[in-house]
Amino acid sequence: MTDFTTWNAGGEKIAIRKDLRVPMRDGVELAADAYQGVDEKPRPALVALSPYGKELQALALTTPPQRRPSPMWDGCIEAGDIARIVKEDYVHVIGDLRGSGHSGGEHIGNYNAGGVSLGQDAYDFIEWVAAQPWCDGNVGMVGISYFGSMQVLAAAERPPSLKAIFVSGGHYDFYETTYHGGVMWFMPRAAREGRGGDSGWAFTDGVKSRMIEKYSPEDLKELVAKRLQDPDVAAWPNLVHVLNYPKNHEAWFDIVMTELDGEWYEERNPITLAPNIDIPVWLQLDQGRGWTLDGTIELFDALKGPKKLDIGPYPPMQSRPFIEEHDKMFRWYDYWIKGIDNGVMDEPAVNVFVEGSRENVTADTWPPKEIEYKNLYLRPRHKLSTDPETMGVEYAAPDGFYQAPLTVTDKVEIIKWETPVFEEACEMIGTGAAHIFAEIDQPDTNFVLRLWDYAPNGKRQLITTGYLKASHRELDVERTTEGNPYHPHTRAVPVEPGQIEEYVLRLYPFANTFMPGHKLVTELSNAEPLADEHNALLPPDAFHLPVGRPVTHKIYRDAVHQSRLVLPFTTPKAVQQ
């Protein structure tokens, strides 16, 4: 019996079932739309789940894909190319998570819905889809970012009908999604509240604050007053507003109030759940999104079943509506769901696009080549060298910069060091570190370090970044290795003004070949420029909370204080002085 309407997409008719009600085991119903070919044969289904609203995802049928920096780019249209999925003979099922869109129930906290894990809801949703007469009983999943994270949560619950997943651009460690090196990132505000090129969550009355639920009004008032003592927070109008009116921004309020890692962020961390996943998993991400790439690699290492890791080229933000990587996705699902032997499993597990050389490197592990960590030392006259400084601090006087708060200036002060031009191609693949010996005159600051590849014509491309809030400098010595530092972020230790400290920044994974004539330039600041070549590729809110007090920074790089970069060279011959 026909129970759908039809849509004409480029001459192809699509059958659309709107507002399906999907029962969860506790009686809550989720809302869903299903798209498929007009004939009523059963097909495998690709499920997409998020709080962004299924009606927004339907714009994939009518809105041409937009690339950043287009003002029409909307970061929340991420469920995939509906017309293409239908053309490839799958059913595309897009659902609203509980507490969002047209679904019932409450949404509270991180990957949690009214005390029910979102993975549990995904299990029920997938098994309901598999039992429908228009589905052949086989299910995969689709979608980028939040939709990608939901795939991992679903797979960890092991629904019998979920045969494989293809995750593009997921985010996993929720603390690292909201605080980079302890520095608050505004992108989650955009994703949740709908600012700066994102429509945000399709909020309902079922979205609640974990902090409001946990604390009495009196206790919460004291906690808010304490959080407002942070001059960085107090100097930013939006955060003052959020903290004073938490019911208007429940989810963002919880993030702002929880500045240290711990139980709330760790709850149902997809990486922690990864060992439960035994179905085939393809992980895909483009370069330029360092924090997500870091988590993607960590997830890849934790998975136990058949798996692939595919790291693509710039730019960091894909089109919206999201349409990329579908060719790879269909090869994956045709093999694992439709049983078509297309050779996808005969290929190496890891594929990495190397910027600069524009080559693909393949292997079965990350990093895909043997690497040797080498130091590039910060030297006087803003130089980087493989040789350390031999002069003491009395001769190699520190570099420095003073940064006024952005409440009184638009200028972000940046200090830089650079290599000579490379005479031969020099490839680096992996994570890295920056050891910065610094003295500040305040109890806290941010360190923002960015590595660029400068071409002879003056054009440049960002290679990787590192962030560290000075009060979060504490290292986990058991997990930290050369070129791979780990900060627990479980407490903040104020800095003693005037004392020289070593700050070790984690540099997010990257893959780049510096071609002959190019040079490596590293920039250090305590805030981000309001606009540059890289930031133009990101939504307007994709920057970090700047320091709210004036800070003088002295950067030491002498024989005793060997400030340096630790980088993953695959090329035997490194840059010379």
Report, as a whole number of angstroms, the end-to-end distance: 76 Å
CATH topology of the largest domain: Rossmann fold
Number of strand segments: 28
Regarding CATH, which class of the largest domain?
Alpha Beta
The dominant shape is globular
- Overall radius of gyration: 24 Å
Helix content: 10-25%
Strand content: 25-35%
Overview of the molecule:
Keywords: Hydrolase. Residues 330-566 form the Xaa-Pro dipeptidyl-peptidase C-terminal domain. The protein is an alpha+beta fold and 577 residues long. The chain has two domains: 5-347, Alpha/Beta hydrolase fold, catalytic domain (Rossmann fold); 372-569, Jelly Rolls. Helices cover 20% and strands 30% of the residues. It has 15 helices and 28 strands. The strands form seven sheets. Strands 18, 19, 20, 22, 25, 27 and 28 form a seven-stranded antiparallel sheet that branches. The protein has a six-stranded mixed sheet with strand order 1-2-3-5-4-9. α3 (118-130) packs across α4.
What are the main properties of this structure?
577 residues; alpha+beta; Rossmann fold; Jelly Rolls; 2 domains; seven-stranded antiparallel beta sheet; six-stranded mixed beta sheet; 15 helices; 20% helix; 30% strand; globular; Xaa-Pro_dipeptidyl-ppase/CocE; dipeptidyl-peptidase activity
